[in-house]
């Protein structure tokens, strides 16, 4: 075949091809070998699916519903281009034979649109918004495989790994962030055998490129030169971006700016002393000297006194994560959390804020039961010993590695104090 991403060669008989593929699929599920003429892209996908533990009689899990789904979709970058996608693909998806679907970067379906009867038929295999159709969850399928490979791809009939999906054919193309190149998700068209045609793959590719162009036009302008931004998550020393300059702050200056950014109304000297120092013998003179040095670093125009306050709004990554959590956008909150707030800080108010933010996010992750988000937390430096997260991960992704790590953590918890430690 001239193009391995296309399902059928010109002039091929779809019915005969489907019969050949069904026999090949039966051979693979029985013996683990992939016979010809299965395309290499499909053969590789079948092997990945089997290694991920996907069974040919499985089904997709619905992970987001109702308010959670609505909040997540509203926060997702592809929400901004859905009007364009509907304009381009809507007539095609409304013909009673095809569905328009859009998934996120994890293969989770966000939108599935088309004629109600076709959606009901697809719903029997959980091809519905909120369901995870990643390759490692349901095996070979166009949106999941397109995201996994970052390539446009067709999947025809029995090329699908799960048997209940094999009556369908689909074509999908990934959509990228025009600024970073990161995969945001994929656009998919799903229907019958007629989609196994070069035109359908070219169609979704064109729509994906149009979506990327629209995202580039809609991308927010760079922050104004005089709008400060404070990055304090996952770093011991915060970074202030202001007037086009990136300023690396000392630990104490980081703590002060984090607290003042949280209190735009300002803080008195006594309030700052209590918030910053455990040692009650620290004098106001020490604090005033620190603030004077901070003015020299960030410029006198940003920091006022009586009370101590910032003279203009400062956007902090802490506030961004908090807003996302409050709106129920757990995925977006997790993406915006590179680590604990100023992890080396011992300032009492910073310690409280650090714990509150981390506890709020981990609680939301445990409640969401998203295996990818839980795995990201569990394998981070701050979550590697978080037994509650490992338990939640084991409940939704009980691999041997996860179970072994959880058993080791629980054994450590059960051991007597000091057991196994060198003295």
TrEMBL record:
Keyword DNA-binding on entry: yes
GO terms of molecular function: DNA binding
Keywords of this entry: DNA-binding, Transcription, Transcription regulation
GO biological process: phosphorelay signal transduction system; regulation of DNA-templated transcription
SMART domains assigned: Trans_reg_C
Domain OmpR/PhoB-type intervals: 244-310
InterPro entries noted in UniProt: GAF (IPR003018), GAF-like_dom_sf (IPR029016), OmpR/PhoB-type_DNA-bd (IPR001867), WH-like_DNA-bd_sf (IPR036388)
Pfam family, one: GAF
Domain of life: Bacteria
Descriptive protein name: Transcriptional regulator
Organism phylogeny: Bacteria, Bacillati, Actinomycetota, Actinomycetes, Kitasatosporales
């Amino acid at each position: 075949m001239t193009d391995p991403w296309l399902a059928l060669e010109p002039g091929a008989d779809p019915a005969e091809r489907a019969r050949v593929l069904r026999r090949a699929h039966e051979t693979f599920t029985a013996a683990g070998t992939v016979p010809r003429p299965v395309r290499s892209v499909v053969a590789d996908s079948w092997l990945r699916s089997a290694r991920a533990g996907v069974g040919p009689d499985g089904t997709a899990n619905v992970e987001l519903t109702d308010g959670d789904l609505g909040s997540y979709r509203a926060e997702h970058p592809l929400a901004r281009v859905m009007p364009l996608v509907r304009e381009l693909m809507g007539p095609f998806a409304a013909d009673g034979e095809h569905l328009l679907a859009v998934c996120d970067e994890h293969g989770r379906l966000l939108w599935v649109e088309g004629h109600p009867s076709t959606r009901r038929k697809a719903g029997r295999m959980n091809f519905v918004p909120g369901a995870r159709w990643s390759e490692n969850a349901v095996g070979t399928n166009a949106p999941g495989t397109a995201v996994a490979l970052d390539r446009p791809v067709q999947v025809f009939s029995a090329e699908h790994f799960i048997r209940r999906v094999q009556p369908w054919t689909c074509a999908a193309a990934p959509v990228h962030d025009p600024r970073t190149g990161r995969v945001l998700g994929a656009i998919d068209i799903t229907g019958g055998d007629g989609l196994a045609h070069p035109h359908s793959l070219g169609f979704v590719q064109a729509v994906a490129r149009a979506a990327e162009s629209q995202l580039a036009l809609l991308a927010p302008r760079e922050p104004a030169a005089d709008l400060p931004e404070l990055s304090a998550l996952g770093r011991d020393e915060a970074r202030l971006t202001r007037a086009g300059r990136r300023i690396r702050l000392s630990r104490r200056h980081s703590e002060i700016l984090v607290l003042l950014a949280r209190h735009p109304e300002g803080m008195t000297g006594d309030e700052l002393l209590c918030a910053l120092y455990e040692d009650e013998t620290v004098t106001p003179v020490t604090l005033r000297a620190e603030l004077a040095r901070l003015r020299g670093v960030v410029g006198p125009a940003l920091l006022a006194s009586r009370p101590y306050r910032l003279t203009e709004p400062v956007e902090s990554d802490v506030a961004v994560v908090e807003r996302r959590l409050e709106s129920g956008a757990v995925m977006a909150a997790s993406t915006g959390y590179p680590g604990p707030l100023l992890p080396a800080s011992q300032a009492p108010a910073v310690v409280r804020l650090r714990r509150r933010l981390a506890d709020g996010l981990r609680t939301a992750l445990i409640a969401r039961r998203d295996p990818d988000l839980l795995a990201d937390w569990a394998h981070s430096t701050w979550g590697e010993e978080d037994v509650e997260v490992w338990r939640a991960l084991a409940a939704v992704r009980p691999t041997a590695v996860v179970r072994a790590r959880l058993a080791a953590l629980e054994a450590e918890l059960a051991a007597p104090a000091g057991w196994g430690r060198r003295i």
